[in-house]
Write a structure and sequence with these properties.
The complex is a heterotrimer of chains A (about 250), B (about 400) and C (about 250).
Chain A (H helix, E strand, L loop, with lengths): L1 H6 L2 H23 L2 H4 L1 H13 L8 H7 L1 H9 L7 H5 L3 H5 L11 H8 L23 H4 L19 H8 L34 H7 L43
Chain B lengths: L2 H9 L4 E2 L13 H23 L10 H14 L1 H7 L8 H4 L6 H35 L2 H10 L8 H34 L12 H27 L6 H32 L4 H11 L1 H26 L3 H27 L11 E2 L12 H21 L12
Antiparallel strand pairs in B: 1-2
Chain C lengths: L1 H30 L13 E6 L8 H10 L10 E9 L4 E5 L16 E10 L7 H5 L5 E3 L5 E3 L9 H5 L6 E3 L4 E3 L5 H4 L6 H5 L5 E5 L7 H7 L2 E2 L11 E4 L7
Parallel strand pairs in C: 1-11
Antiparallel strand pairs in C: 1-9, 2-3, 2-4, 5-6, 7-8, 10-11
Chain lengths: ~250, ~400, ~250
């Protein structure tokens, strides 16, 4: 054994000693370091602990109904039934824990126009108004109770939610046609608009009632239904709410 | 550390199109441009040294030790920009203690340590061992102790030990070449493996990084050799200089070919990201990529070296032109790193927007700090040269 | 004689083992990090987003910032909403919805617009997360219940995860200099509450629940809709799924 070491070049011995020292130091250091610094699982556990201990600012809708039963009962009957209380009233965990701390309640117009101002990117049928012309000098809450926001007088039916469509139709040749001319709609649509939908006509023959060459209607434009765009539904090309426009360029005018 | 300065950073940049909101703040700054630049020089300088020992390119013998010392000087400073850039540099030991084995960045720490200790330091030690013993006998007090320690208290100056040293160096260099490839190729992989970023994500990235590293390393050693030899009032060995320039020439051609291949490949495949990347190159990187990286950094030096060969210019003219060429190459390679790091962050991952990088003058990741970081390795190199002179000293044992 | 000693020894050993085992069990119990009564192994969370319901009010963004102390500036978001406007000629304009400024700015859509809609975005809590893969110190990880968290005590602030996220969901928290992102309000969901963004959404455009449970709010969502995820070609396996997602969304 010692013979082997004696035969090793002196340089290798020197380097070997340095490496051994290095490895020893590193191993010793690793051994010395407490497990809490090294153990990945402990870190993750500690992180989960820290995360779950973070403060909560929003109490959640259930917390509100514990005390505010009557107003909640009102809300569940109205159009805002699916809104969480804190959507409008802001973070209320502090209030839920100590009722003397008041929750924030914003009654200015901006609180309502935030959602209900007309924005073409908003899904069609979502009730929207133009805040510039819709009672600009009044507060929204004067006519609409926030917990059950029924409009003060019976709205012109479809137009209340489908304002943009109605406004488009109003300057079109179809202005005299009530929505129900083409759309059959169950009265429950006003309560659950997404679940109960309005119907549209099922085929060309509907439009032919007014627009075919042998239609009794006097003031309508006539076209030969046998040759004009056969196989297609009329409204694939002609936007029914503004029929002179072809379908493109009507975006949000659904 | 990051508050107000960064607040200004993300308010100022001019954004066109749409960027994800969190992209307003650019995560990796100038410091991360400096880092691959420095490690590239390490790999390149080492490859140059290995040409002498493994491929027996005798003409390069005068720069062999200089290359090694250069590699060491830059390797020692290279971690500095990384540390400065971290949000918590005091926790950086975690990379070695609990590395995430799937992380290229973590594994690279070990590659770096391996290269430093097992390759570079070992090779330098074997190269200088006998001289260190001789020098320790010639010096007094402080330097004597320094040399004794550096030689690891070795005393054998026999011919057998010298022969063993030479063999050891050869073995280490043979191991060292793939290690050097791994060192800078890995940095390329750190970028190339990020699938979220189409400017970085490329199989060629490690290869391109490596070859541009070789280019910059050879250029740097050429530059240093010319400057230092002139400062020492010695004659520049033209055979050595011409040989370095020759290797540089081929390296630049290879590097350019690879980058050109990447470019053609992207254009031809015309993937989804091609639109925003084309906009990036034309609108944001035109100067740094088109003018500095390609034109000044590759075409002009290539042209210079072609001219030198074709016109068979005389020595003085060659020296001047080489000098100009290597400086341009350094600028070009720095611009290459800039275009990768900063360029990759100047377009949005939404593929619909471009940002601008507003470099700061002061601060941790400012222009001044970059200058300091680029100068520091030269200072370290000066110390190394003083302690371990790479030139033949009269009293050193002839090899 | 030996037998008695052997029995005595083995009994002592057993007793000691029992005590030790009890201590370990007790230690493990106190080491349980989740709130009492919460079993992470019984949940695997995901989110569903119904594009056609989002009205772009931005209340989710505000609630998230309030709940999680996210910096209130415009460069740090755990969740945000994008507006897409697709033109007749195929051009697409995207902008970030800024809740406070609605009313003071002209909507971009015009008569050349073909489609326009809002897209809420957040961390997708990927099942094959690139951010977890690249973190050098393992500071970001996936919990048993599928949420990707960041250990702010270990994060070194290298920002590699921010580079690796294809969705721009991560940012560097300027106060802690560590990486930060949406955690599905982990501190809420482990107590049976909903994430803040889901809580305040007025149209239920965001639905939260267990992905693999048939009795989850996501069950109908996943059955009745054609689901999409963002950047599917990157194979990150996001757990935030979109219904009615337009092909132009990146």
């Amino acid at each position: 054994m010692t013979g082997f070491f004696k035969r090793l070049p002196e340089a290798v011995v020197r380097v070997g000693i340095v490496f051994l020292l290095f490895i020893t130091t590193v191993s010793f250091a690793r051994w010395m370091i407490p497990a809490s610094l090294k153990n990945g699982r402990e870190h993750r556990t500690a992180t989960v602990k820290r995360e779950t201990a973070k403060a909560i600012h929003y109490a959640g809708a259930d917390a509100c109904t514990e005390c505010h039963k009557e107003i909640n009962a009102v809300k569940t009957e109205g159009y805002h039934r699916n809104l969480s209380c804190e959507t409008c009233h802001g973070a209320a965990k502090n209030h839920a824990e100590d009722p003397d701390v008041k929750a924030v309640t914003d009654k200015v117009r901006e609180a309502c126009t935030r959602c209900h101002m007309y924005d073409p990117s908003r899904p069609t049928g979502f009730p929207q108004i133009n805040p510039v012309v819709h009672n600009p000098r009044k507060q929204c809450v004067e006519c609409h109770k926030p917990h059950s926001p029924k409009p003060p007088h019976v709205p012109q039916e479809c137009q209340a939610c489908h304002g943009q469509i109605a406004r488009t139709k109003e300057v079109s040749p179809h202005v005299d046609l009530p929505c129900t001319t083409c759309h059959t709609v169950d009265v429950r649509h006003k309560v659950s608009p997404r679940e109960v939908r309005a119907q549209i006509p099922s085929d060309r023959s509907f439009c032919a009632k007014c627009h075919s060459a042998d239609s009794p209607m006097k003031e309508t434009q006539k076209v030969d239904f046998k040759t004009h765009g056969e196989k297609y539904l009329c409204w694939q090309c002609h936007y029914p709410h503004m029929p002179e426009l072809h379908t493109y360029g009507t975006t949000t005018l659904r | 550390m990051h508050t107000a300065a960064h607040a200004m950073l993300f308010l100022l940049p001019q954004t066109t199109g749409y960027i994800f909101p969190n992209e307003a703040e650019m995560p990796w700054s100038l410091l991360i441009v400096v880092y691959p630049y420095l490690t590239g020089l390490v790999a390149g300088a080492f490859i140059l040294a290995s040409l002498v020992k493994v491929f027996n390119v005798k003409e390069l013998q005068p720069v062999y030790r200089l290359s090694l010392l250069t590699a060491l000087a830059f390797l020692l400073i290279a971690p500095l920009p990384l540390l400065l850039h971290l949000g918590h540099p005091e926790r950086s030991y975690e990379i070695f203690l609990t590395p995430n084995l799937t992380s290229a960045m973590a594994m690279f720490g070990f590659v770096y340590a391996w290269y430093l200790m097992v390759v570079l330091l070992l090779e330098i030690w074997f190269t200088y061992r006998r001289e260190l013993i001789v020098w320790s006998q010639g010096e007094r007090t402080v330097m004597k102790v320094v040399y004794r320690v550096l030689s690891l208290f070795s005393v054998d100056t026999s011919e057998e030990s010298a022969a063993f040293d030479r063999k050891a160096i050869k073995v280490i260099t043979i191991v060292g070449i793939p290690s050097a490839f791994l060192l800078h190729g890995y940095v390329g992989f750190i970028f190339g493996s990020v699938k979220a970023n189409p400017w970085w994500s490329s199989v060629l990235m490690p290869i391109v990084f490596l070859f541009s590293a070789i280019v910059s390393g050879i250029a740097l050693v050429t530059f240093l050799y010319m400057v230092l030899t002139t400062l020492r009032r010695e004659r520049i060995n033209m055979a050595c200089l011409d040989k370095m320039a020759s290797f540089l020439f081929y390296a630049v051609i290879l590097d350019f070919s690879l980058e050109f291949l990447d470019f053609i490949h992207r254009l031809y495949e015309s993937e989804e990201s091609i639109k925003i990347l084309s906009e990036l190159v034309m609108n944001r990187l035109f100067f740094s990529l088109g003018v500095i990286q390609v034109l000044l950094g590759m075409f002009v030096p290539l042209g210079i070296m072609v001219l030198i060969r074709v016109l068979r210019l005389d020595e003085e003219l060659r020296k001047l032109l080489y000098f100009v060429a290597v400086i341009l190459i350094q600028l070009g390679i720095f611009a290459t790193r800039w275009n990768v790091v900063i360029g990759g962050q100047m377009f949005s991952k939404s593929f619909r927007g471009l940002m601008e990088y507003k470099a700061k003058i002061g601060g941790m990741d400012g222009f001044l700090m970059t200058l300091v970081l680029l100068v520091l390795p030269f200072i370290v190199l000066t110390v190394l040269i003083k302690v371990l002179p790479p030139w033949d000293r009269p009293e050193s044992v002839a090899r | 004689m030996e037998r008695r000693r052997f029995v005595k020894k083995s009994l002592t050993l057993l007793a000691e083992a029992g005590v030790l085992g009890g201590m370990v069990a007790a230690a493990n119990k106190s080491a349980r990090a989740e709130p009492k009564g919460y079993d992470a192994s019984k949940h695997y969370y995901g989110m569903g987003i119904q594009i056609d319901k989002c009205i772009g009010c931005g209340k989710c963004v505000e609630a998230c910032k309030e709940e999680n102390n996210v910096p209130r500036d415009v460069a740090h978001f755990r969740t945000w909403v994008e507006r897409y406007v697709i033109e007749q000629d195929g051009g697409v304009v995207v902008e970030r919805v800024d809740p406070g400024s609605s009313g003071s700015h002209e909507p971009i859509p015009n008569e050349n617009t073909v489609r326009t809609f809002f897209v809420p975005k957040l961390c997708n809590q990927c099942d094959n997360p690139p951010c977890v893969q690249v973190c050098p110190v393992g500071a970001t990880f996936k919990t048993e219940d599928g949420v990707i968290l960041v250990d702010a005590d270990r994060c070194i602030g290298c920002r590699y995860c921010i580079q690796a996220c294809p969705y721009g969901a991560r940012y560097l928290n300027p106060l802690t200099d560590t990486a930060d992102k949406c955690t599905f309000c982990y501190h809420r969901i482990t107590k049976g509450l909903l994430p803040a963004c889901v809580e305040v959404c007025p149209t239920q455009a965001r639905i939260f629940g267990d992905i693999d449970s048939p009795a989850s709010p996501l069950a109908r969502f996943r059955r009745m809709n054609k689901l999409h995820v963002l950047k599917p070609s990157l194979n990150t396996e996001p757990k935030v799924q979109y219904a009615d997602l337009d092909g132009e969304v990146r």
